[in-house]
Task: structure prediction
Amino acid sequence: MSPHLSRQIRPRRLILSLGLVLGLLGTTAQADEYDWMLQVLDSSRINGQVGSGASGNMAVNTAAGDGNIQANQRQIGVGGGVVAGPVTPLGVHKPSNVSGGAALDAQTEIGGQAFSHSAGVLGINQVSGAGNAQVNTMSMGGGGSSSSGIRAMGAGIPKPLPNLSGQDTGRRAGHIPDRYRAVIGEGALSGFSGVLQINQVSGIGNMTANHFSISMP
Result:
């Protein structure tokens, strides 16, 4: 199986929700084999024409590795009513099954013409590695709608993660140094208009968050 993720989707005037997690949960595999497989598969890519020309409410979660947590949360209120339900508070803790035995060659990339000339609200969480947490939250209100959802989003901030790397310095005997790479190509997201939230991580034990709120008359 190729270590790279490549999906080509062309949505038009639709809500796009793409969620894909590549993880390894084999409890009977030997530790060395498990670590080797993690090293091979820790690569996540969004490229080609994925999402090009899309519009509307778009949420993308892609993960390669082990023990990663991701969330895209939205609330929209218009004229006193709530179009999308309230944002659920999100607490993030250290996963219990994070493996720190293998040296990682973790790479994330958004390339090609991905989401070029798209418009609307786009939240992307992309991660390669282990024990990482990512969250995008957005709340919009107008026309007398309640702002309680906006205040509630403060509870959605992930709790700090403890150091998951342990002795994983990349210099242990028999292991190559860890190599992390996160890239957004110059053609990706070109011509995008609207609200754009991106969390892109390669590594171990990282925490990233984007929070956006707006209240209109």
In short: Residues 1-29, 82-96, 146-176 have pLDDT under 50 and may be disordered. The two ends are 53 Å apart (CA to CA). The longest strand covers residues 55-66.
